[in-house]
């Protein structure tokens, strides 16, 4: 009797989402906390870990509550502790990823010469830096701190745990940015928010956003938010009213493709969520609604993306000077153009006629 088709082997990824406070004095102290959390997650059997937005060295909370004229000192301090890519920090994270065979998504303040960027790094389990992307549009107060990213970072990368994409904070309110990742069939989406800001309404909005993306994309979402202690909040601002703006807003969570929490979310304090991602649930969801497959109508609605890196200078090879007007070489080139591009030549003749005016 012929054997029936066997069920594909279940693929399980153990994911960790970290809610954690930075060291506001020293980027090296924050790096140490990152490395300790990676080791802790490895002890829990995690294959994949996500840290909060720009966690290294710290998120610029000061810019949310202080007027720009008073932020120069803290902005300069952020420059001093910001991360260069590549550099000692990326070397340390790469080594940790390799040591623990873990895929790591880390948010950093990236320093590129005279500018800072909100950057997301994805390290594969062999330590390779698979992606460095920059937030395409910093939000409100953040525009005084960071430059803008470009379409080159809107990528989904293949890793040991599957196809991973990432967005930071209110990039999740840009449906086309999310669709760019959905169209590349992301399986695990890393979301990062600063946390400890705005209040409970921020956490509520965040939860709606990440659960909706999981449903719409048919992927798992692993979201990490930061945390500030009472002492840290007091240090950032002596004004009690302003300090209230640096509370709440935490929603560290792991969501499945049907939009459900796999474990209760973490909304206060430091901690780590760990959950097993059954990757077969992606097909289960997409069987019903694949927003970039059988549920799409690309002949009606599609996304055009410019994914070229934005650079301030492009070098073009020197071109030899054109021949003198009316030379035999010039006539030969013109004849060749007419032979290959008669329509373009006709258009040129029409333009010349207009410039000369009506025939006399």
Please describe what this structure looks like.
- With 360 residues, this protein is of the alpha/beta class.
- It folds into two domains: 12-288, Nitrilase/N-carbamoyl-D-aminoacid amidohydrolase; 326-354, no CATH class.
- The chain is 33% helix and 19% strand.
- The strands form two sheets. Strands 5-4-3-2-1-11 form a six-stranded mixed beta sheet.
- Helix 1 (27-43) runs parallel beside helix 4 and helix 10 packs across helix 11 (342-356).
- This is Putative amidohydrolase.
- GO terms for molecular function: nitrilase activity.
- It holds the Pfam family CN_hydrolase.
Write a brief caption for the model.
Helix content is 33%, strand content 19%. The protein is of the alpha/beta class.
Pick out the low-confidence regions: 1-7, 342-356
* Assembly form of the protein: single chain
How would you spell out the order of helices and strands? EHEHHHEEEEEHEHEHHEEHHH
Q: Overall pLDDT, averaged?
A: 90
Tell me which CATH architecture of the largest domain applies here.
4-Layer Sandwich
Please, how many helices? 11
Estimated radius of gyration: 26 Å
Using the alpha-carbon principal axes, give the shape.
globular
The CATH homologous superfamily of the largest domain is termed: Carbon-nitrogen hydrolase
Fraction of helical residues: 25-40%
Strand order of the largest sheet: 5-4-3-2-1-11
Structural class: alpha/beta
How would a textbook summarize the main sheet? 6 strands, mixed
Organism: Azorhizobium caulinodans (strain ATCC 43989 / DSM 5975 / JCM 20966 / LMG 6465 / NBRC 14845 / NCIMB 13405 / ORS 571)
GO molecular function, one term: nitrilase activity
Protein name: Putative amidohydrolase
Biased composition (Basic and acidic residues): 328-337
């Amino acid at each position: 009797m012929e054997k029936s088709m066997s069920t594909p082997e279940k693929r399980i990824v153990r994911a960790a989402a970290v809610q954690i406070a930075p060291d506001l004095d020293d980027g090296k102290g924050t790096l140490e906390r990152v490395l300790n959390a990676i080791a802790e997650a490895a002890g829990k059997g995690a294959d994949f870990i996500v840290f909060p937005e720009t966690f290294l060295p710290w998120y610029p909370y000061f810019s949310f509550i202080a007027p720009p004229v008073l932020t120069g000192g803290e902005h300069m301090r952020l420059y001093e502790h910001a991360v260069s890519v590549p550099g000692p920090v990326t070397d340390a994270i790469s080594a940790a990823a390799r040591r623990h065979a873990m895929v790591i998504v880390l948010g950093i303040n990236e320093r590129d010469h005279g500018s800072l960027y909100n950057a997301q790094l994805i390290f594969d389990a062999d330590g390779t830096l698979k992606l460095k992307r920059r937030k395409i549009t910093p939000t409100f107060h953040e525009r005084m701190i960071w430059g803008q990213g470009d379409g080159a970072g809107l990528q989904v990368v293949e890793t040991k745990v599957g196809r991973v994409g990432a967005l930071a904070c209110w990039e999740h309110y840009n449906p086309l940015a999310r669709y760019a990742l959905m169209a590349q069939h992301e399986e695990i989406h890393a979301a990062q928010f600063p946390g400890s800001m705005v209040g409970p309404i921020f956490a509520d909005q965040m939860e709606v956003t990440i659960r909706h993306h999981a449903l719409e994309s048919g992927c798992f979402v692993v979201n990490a938010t930061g945390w500030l202690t009472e002492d840290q909040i007091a240090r950032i601002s002596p004004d009690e009213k302003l300090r209230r703006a640096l509370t709440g807003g935490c929603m560290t969570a792991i969501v499945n493709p049907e939009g459900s929490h796999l474990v209760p979310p973490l909304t206060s304090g430091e901690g780590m969520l760990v959950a097993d991602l059954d990757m077969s649930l992606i097909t289960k969801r997409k069987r019903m609604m694949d927003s970039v497959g059988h549920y799409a109508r690309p002949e009606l609605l599609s996304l055009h993306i410019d994914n070229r890196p934005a650079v301030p200078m492009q070098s073009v090879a020197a071109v030899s000077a054109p021949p003198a007007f009316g030379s035999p070489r010039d006539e030969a080139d013109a004849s060749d153009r007419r032979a290959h591009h008669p329509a373009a030549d006709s258009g040129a003749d029409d333009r010349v006629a207009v410039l000369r005016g009506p025939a006399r």
